[in-house]
Specification:
The protein is about 80% helix and about 0% strand. The chain has about 150 residues and is mainly alpha-helical. The chain is elongated, with a radius of gyration of 19 Å. About 40% of the residues are buried.
Amino acid sequence: MGTEFLECLAMAVPLRATSSSWLALGAAYGTAKSGTGIAAMSVMRPELIMKSIIPVVMAGIIAIYGLVVAVLIANSLNDGISLYRSFLQLGAGLSVGLSGLAAGFAIGIVGDAGVRGTAQQPRLFVGMILILIFAEVLGLYGLIVALILSTK
C-alpha cells in the first residue's frame, strides 16, 4: 500500500503544475492593493499616476516567474517520470509559488503605503522603490531555487 500511495502521489500532475499558481494569487493581491493606493493618491495628486504605477508592474512580473517554471515542468512531463523527478518538480513549483505569494503580499502592502506617502512627501519615492526591489527579490529567489530543482 505504501508504494501505491507514493506512485499515486507522483502522478499528481495537477498538484505539480498548479503549485506555481500560488504566486498568481500574490501577484493579484499586489496589483489590487497597489491599485487601491494609486486610486486614493490620484485624488490628491493626479499628475503622479504614471509614476505610481511601478508597484503594479512589479507585481505583474512575479506572475511571469510562475509561467517560466510551469512551462519547464510541463515540458518535462512524460509517462516514465520517476518519483524523485516528480518530487523535484513539486518542490520547484512550491518554491516559486510560495515565494511569489509572499513577494506579492509585500509588494502590495509597500506599494499601497508607498504611493500614498509619496503623494504627501515626494522624497519617499526612492525609499519606496528600494523596498519594492527587496520585495521583488523574494520572488526571484524562489525562481532561482525552482530552476535549480528543475534542471536536476
